Every structure is written in structure tokens, then in C-alpha cells.
Amino acid sequence: MRYAGFAICVALVLLAATTAAAAAAAAPAIGDVRLAGGPSPRQGQVQVQVDGQWVDAVCQTDNGDDNSLGPQVVCRQLGFTGGAQFFFPKNAALPAGNATVLTGALVCNGSEASLADCEFSAAEGDYIPNCTDTDNEAFFLGVVCAGAVQIEELRLAGGPSPSEGRVELLLANSTQWGTLCGTWTADGDPAVAQVVCRQLGYEPSQALSRGGGIFGSGGLPAAAAMNPGCNGEEEALEDCSLMLLSGNDTCHAAAFGVSCNGSQAITGVRLAGGPSEKAGRLEVKLLGNDSWHGVCASSWPDDFAPIARLVCRSLGFYGGATRGLGWYGTDLQPGIADLVCGPEATDLNGCSFAAAESRQCAPETTVGVACEGSADIQELRLANGTTEREGRVEIRLNGSEWWTIGNSLEAAAAATVVCRQLGYGGGAVRGGAPYGIGPVLLNDAAGSQFEVPASKVEALSCRGTETNLNECSWMLARSAYLDLLSVACEGAQTISDVRLTNNGTAGGADGRLEVQMGGKWGTVCGFTAWFDEGAAAAACTQLGFPGPARIVNGTAYTSDASLPILIAHVACGTAANQTSLNACSFDWNDPPMPTCEHADDVGLVCTKESNQ
């Protein structure tokens, strides 16, 4: 059985033998709706009337946008509340013969009275005969409405206290207790935890989810599954859109648990495998298990940075940055995943989490934490620049050779930190590897050598307030980078001069923007994009026009078409005090970018006086 999380791309199995062309002529006329084959009228496979015939709704998993609002409309049309989707694989119940599957998107905004009010679109030629196309595995669409699961009694079991444990249900007209199955992800878990704790008489704001079988399975059959089907405001769990399961079902995503009034599920926290007690692989010890386990965090390191600061604070240290993708080693199996910590949390027991084994976490996804005072990076330099204030950022780790850092769209704050650590002001990114890609040589299949960067670090994420890069988050580089983090600090005159040219004449307040670099003049790519308002203000201010600046198409000014396009992606942000393009981030256009043409040259209209 499959639960929510798939895209709600809907197709209609037309029972009448039609041709694809005829079916594409008009959108189907959707009439009544019903839920078939389920344990109650509130749960089952979606069937709709199309042109007077009952047909099955089928979902494809490989395309379409996720839309959880369609099930709400289905339930409203049936006179119920709530609404969540689930899927189960196609089977022999699909019609045979010349039946055609008409694929298309059913898009609802959630306020419609019926599915007929939703928008249905079908692309011409987008048909799958008999639902047998192996490249488009189809799934029946099911919907469960609120009240499908009638609960007689609710309890927590397997935890260290009465307020913490595995959620177990006694369904109406049953004498057998069963477990509540969790979801594959943690997205809906906190809302369900709030409802469970409220129903048990606890303050819902203190509720924390404990997914992935943290408190074991209890050996009970699965009674119901989260879809997720709560919004967190329900008074009782049966008011949620939970899916009723048969006695033969098992929890594919493991039993769901909650903590309602303080948690002791994590009995120990430490940082191991790092250069000091202030940095290392984040490890936890769980209740009833004397072994240490890693923490799974496969997302980008900046997403985990607030939790890293919480860990450091709970250990008595300051700061807190992430070291992702097994930075401090991969020899420990993860124990927990899906950490979500609120602002009131004082340690990891105040966070929601799940057992890592239910999330398919590999050892290389274990996360590391570096608190203030750690020193992964021992030396920093700018290499291969024309002055000491600019160049390719290189770092020396603990006893390592010099390494480079992969560039990223979020590198502007890191550039500021690099310059601050080196004793300079400012800090702007120079993209396009203008200072080379490093000294590492590899051989290709033909035996010729080519250069690749010795990247050790990627996803470098700084807030911009740090004093050195050790306070920033990053993760182990997964591949070599051809675009390396390069930085120009205050005082670096990468752009030696700027001008506006109009019909070949320079010196006015408007014209095509041209820059001089290395003694060569050229244009700036980015009229339609890649040149922000801050950059326009900086260029005009550098030219002696501090008033409002307007970006225009440089082709409006007849100028020398033989000049090369020197830079692109110029960005100063919203800073109003930039007085030069040298303070902005930009990319070298060498080798030339295929999307940069003279038709997109930047032009500016500057003004002398401010409107203030």
C-alpha cells in the first residue's frame, strides 16, 4: 500500500472504446463521485461519473505537481470533512480491451463544491492504452475523509513515562489494540502529535513527534495509518483523515510515537571523531540502548545549522555550524533522523525526530557539528589574484594540503567572512573561475592531462556575521568543481574603470555600460536578467551620478559592436551604499556564456541628484 506524498496527477480510465484523438477533443464532463472498495463510505478508491459512466481515477507517479486539495473537494462533495490522498498499485481490476487511460492534471484550489468545479487539463496525444506503459506506472487514486477511523480508546505504550510512547488504538467494535502507522517523512507528524496529546489531556503546544518506531512496534497489528491527516487543531484523532487498515496490514513506515510532557528518549549527546571536544560527528544514545548512534541529516548543511547551535549550547559551548555528509567519518550507523527543533527547545529531547532505520539513512549522511573555538580550517588564503586582496579561496585543513571550495549561489555572505578573516573589508564573489581551478592534474581516456580543482568543501553557508570560516556550515564535496569560490575584498580593483557610451561617445549620464578590466574594455551581460538594481546604483555612483538609476537595453545606443562581453551575473543586492561595481559580485564571461549576446548588453540611465 502507498500513502501520501505522490503527485496528484489524475487520469480517467474511459470504459468506452474511444480513440485518443476523440478523447482529446474536450475535457471530460465530471459528474458524481464515490469512494469504492474501502472499509467505509469515507475511504476508498475514487470513482467519478464521466458522461454518465462510472470510471476509475488513476494516478501516475512520474509527473505532475503535488496537489492535496483534490481529496478535500472529494470529501466535501460527499458531505464529509477533511480529505487526504493515498495510492495503491494498479491491478487486474483495470478494464481490458480497447479502454484508454486519458492522463491529465486535476487542479483544485480547495474551495470547490465538487470535482466538476476543478480544472482538468489533458494534453493531446498523452494517452496510455490499457495502463500498460512500463514507463508510466499508474496507481489508483484513493481518498480518505475525516471519521473513517472510529476510535474507542487511545493510549501511549513502550515509553519511559505515561506521557511518552508509541501510539496505540482500540477501534470501535474491536477488542484488539493496534498501532498507528507513521508517515515516510516527518512533514505531518507534529500535527498528529498535537492532536494525540490534546486528546490525552496534555498541553498540545508541548507535543513532539517520535516517528520511525523509536518506541518499538509492540508486536501489535497495524490499526490505522497517518496520511498525514491532521492539521493540529482537531479535538480527537478520529476527526483526522486517518486511513483504516485491515488486520493483515503492517506499518511500512514504522509505528508512530509522541512525547506529550517532556522527553527522555535521548539519554546522551556527544561530538566524536573531530579535532577537539568542540567539534565532531554528532552522536546520540537512545533510551534502552547503550550504544552510540549518528544523526542523519541528508539535506543541505545550512538547514541543520540552527540545530547545530542548539547542540553546542546544550553541551556548554557557543556558536554552532554544520559539517555535512560524513565530514568527521562514516563508520557509525545513524540512529535518528528528521530532527525538527522549535525555538523553545533546550536540547535534542525538545525536538521531534524519527528512527533513522525507517528513513533509509546511510552512514555517509551522518552530520557533524562544530562549535565556536573549533579549528577545522587552520589557514586561509586568496590564490592566483592580481593583488593579495583577490583570488581563488583556498583553505588548509588539519594537516592537509591546500583545498579549494565549490562556488554556490549563496556565496556572497561567505565572501564577506573570507575578507574579514584576512583583515580586509568588503567581500564580493568572482564567479566563472577567473583565478583558475587549481593544480590537480588527471588523465583522460586518451592519456592527455587536464586540470580539475582539489575541492574538499561544498555548500559553504555563512550568515555574514562570522569572524572566520570555521563558524560557517559546509559539507564534504561530492565531486570536483569547475566553478570555484573566488573573492575580491575591498580595495581590489578588478574593474579599473567604467563608462556609458552613446553613439560612440562616452561621458554622458546614459548609454551602454562598459567596464575596463586588465586594460581591455567590454560590455556587461544582463539586460533581461543578471543585473540587479543595486548594481545599477553602484555603477551610476561610480560614474558620479548618485541619483536614481534605471536599467535599459544597451542596444538602444549605437556603440562599438566589436567589444567583448566581459562580465555577467552582476549583483549588489539591496545595499544602497555601494559606490563601485568592484563591491558587487559578478562572473567572468570567459569562456563566453552561450546565453550572453550583445542584444542583452546592459544600458543605464543615471541621474545627478537624489529624489530625497
Key terms for this structure?
9% helix, 36% strand, mainly beta, disordered N terminus, single chain, nine-stranded antiparallel β-sheet, 5 domains, Mac-2 Binding Protein, 612 residues, SRCR domain-containing protein, flat, 29-stranded mixed β-sheet
Structural account:
This protein has 612 residues and is mainly β. It folds into 5 domains: 9-144, SRCR-like domain (Mac-2 Binding Protein); 151-259, Roll (Mac-2 Binding Protein); 266-370, SRCR-like domain (Mac-2 Binding Protein); 379-488, Mac-2 Binding Protein, CATH 3.10.250.10; 497-605, Mac-2 Binding Protein. 49% of the residues are buried.
Chain-wise SSE layout:
Elements: E1 9-14, H1 20-23, E2 30-40, E3 43-50, E4 53-60, H2 69-77, E5 84-89, E6 100-107, E7 119-121, E8 127-129, E9 138-144, E10 151-161, E11 164-171, E12 177-181, H3 189-199, E13 208-211, E14 222-225, E15 243-244, E16 257-259, E17 266-276, E18 279-286, E19 292-295, H4 301-314, E20 321-324, E21 334-341, E22 351-355, E23 368-370, E24 379-383, E25 390-396, E26 402-405, H5 412-421, E27 428-431, E28 440-443, E29 449-452, E30 455-461, E31 473-476, E32 486-488, E33 497-502, E34 505-506, E35 510-517, E36 520-524, H6 533-542, E37 550-553, E38 565-571, E39 585-588, E40 602-605
Parallel strand pairs: 12-14, 13-22, 19-21, 20-31, 26-30, 27-39, 36-38
Antiparallel strand pairs: 1-4, 1-6, 2-3, 3-4, 3-9, 4-9, 5-9, 6-7, 6-8, 10-11, 11-12, 11-16, 13-16, 14-15, 17-18, 18-19, 18-23, 20-23, 21-22, 24-25, 25-26, 25-32, 27-32, 28-29, 30-31, 33-34, 33-35, 35-36, 35-40, 37-40, 38-39
Signal peptide: 1-23
Keywords: Disulfide bond, Signal
InterPro entries: SRCR, SRCR-like_dom_sf
